[in-house]
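Students often ask what a holo structure prediction actually looks like on paper. The answer is less mysterious than it sounds. You provide the chain, you provide the ligand, and the output is a string of discrete structure tokens encoding the 3D arrangement of the protein together with copper (II) ion.
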Amino acid sequence: MEAPLVVETDPKIPRQPLPAHDGADFLKTIPGFSVMRKGGTDGEATFRGMGGSRLNIMVDDQNVVGGCSMRMDAPTAYIFPEIYDKLTVIKGPQTVQYSNMGSAATIKFDREPKVYSEPGKSFYGSLLGGSFGRHDELIQAEIGNKQYYGELRASNSQSNDYKDGDGNSVHSRYRRWNAQATFGLTPDENTRIEFSTSVSDGWAAYADRAMDGVKFLRENYAFKAEKTHISDLIESLTFQASYNSIDHIMDQVTLRSRKYMMMPPSARLDHFTTQAKLSSKLRLEDALSAVVGIDYSGSTHSKDTGGNNILQDDSSFQSIGAFAELTKTLNPAQNLIGGIRMNAWSAEDKRMASTTSGQTRSENTYNAFLRSENALGSNTVGYLGYGHAERFPDYWELISMSSSSMGASAFQATKKEKTDQIDVGAVYKNDSLKISGSGFYNRVDNFILINYNGVGMGVTGVSTNVDAETAGFELGAEYGLSKQWRLNSSLSYTYGRDLTNQQALAQLPPLEGRIGVKFDDAQWSYGAVLRMVAAQNRYSTGYGNIAGKDIGASSSFAIFSANVAYRPTKTTRIYAGVDNLFDTTYAEFISRSGSDGMGSAIPGYVQTMRVNEPGRTFWIKASLAFD
Ligand SMILES: [Cu+2]
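The corresponding structure tokens follow.
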């Protein structure tokens, strides 16, 4: 963490433990994030215990939205971190620039297209091999000159079932591939017009449910035009538009022997999303700048009725928003940043069998924040902010989780969620020591809590509104013992309470700490990481979010991992590591139950309380870059 509020990192640098080739596993290496495990990939990321649409997850400023009504595909399932150039996490409701404002955090995976002053080309490639038949391949090629540029990025990742620390195979094999192409025109220094397209697909076995994902086809088209240095007032004007489609099929046939004759053998679900945004950076005075804009997003979800492959719409959502975010420099040591956003939402229930079939609901949401960033002496920067974020319920909360066992729909009854949050933090830096801390407290009115108790045939969970509060912190320290030796550590915790039901707020991860040591002489480096997680005894069985629920207490664990890296030339890197060296058997508190969703084992696999994490894993990775 370089700044107290914003975490930035380079997704091309390997992480430990080795992430699956998806965004959630990658985020897990950042303090404050946890991942709910479902199998080998497609885990659900949460930040400070908040997941789903409380996290605004974007690639190149577009929202990615999964298609599965059973939440097989979190947005991060379609994000392959290594093909992006930069990952940014903005903690708390402390920006209003992006549509579907995330009340807990804003997470951006971005490409940074090269600017060419003369003809050039570059290439980056990496190969990875690991235990359990894991192998990843990735290429990125760029070419351009003063007038145009082009990019190709492609990746493939595959793994067999992994084994947990007890040596039991987990139903978790997967494959994902992705290809994307970008073409840009730069007719002059201040103009950029860019077209991009990407396609990805894959399949994944799940250890926590009765079905597996056999198709996750995503197609994406995006257009972006940007003009900079227009006048003294208008620093830039940007227009962007995108189209996304997800075609998802899950079944209980392809990756396992069929078990439930009363269930449809397969289900198909499609999600189409269009987004557009016009924004401008303004310089109002020397010490006052602004970003203002309007945006639109619309989506339609459809599913087949019982495995017949005939798609019918079950819902549509629209939102139109406007925002302004201002930065005022009061003096060299203090900036004030504030913003407001308004969105007009509407949603239609298009399900045939629903007590609210054909009904529409329309509602506005309002967001605002204000924060002060201060230099506190020469080595310390700090901030204090307040944010108010209103969140319209998402597809899963309004449609997937809206029918009670009595058949009544919560489509109209589920209220929008309102978060009021205080964020505070500071970073201290000198030559050998860096200490950072961030903390928060919030009160959430109408927190959308999913109640999975009393589920029946065809009912998974029901959206309810409760009042809740959470508070927590992330701390980090890095100390240089010498030029070559560095120590680092982090600690994170979130406490939460459901004030309506007078119980623990569900799905909050326990206290977690990490200690790392690294030796680096510029050619060779050696590192080791100890990750320690406390037991979680605060839980509310049967309550949770759109992706999972509490199933009981969890035990503490400590996992030791080690790595070595070698740089034979300036552009070649070879990394190797062993994760979970002592082959410990463990599971994360928020992970899904290790049964088939009907309370019994998947045929041929051992049933565990939760989906266990991988046991000892060896991996080696090589990357090569040249211009
Ligand atoms: Cu699915």
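The pocket of copper (II) ion is lined by residues 68, 70, 72, 213, 248, 250 (CB under 6 Å).
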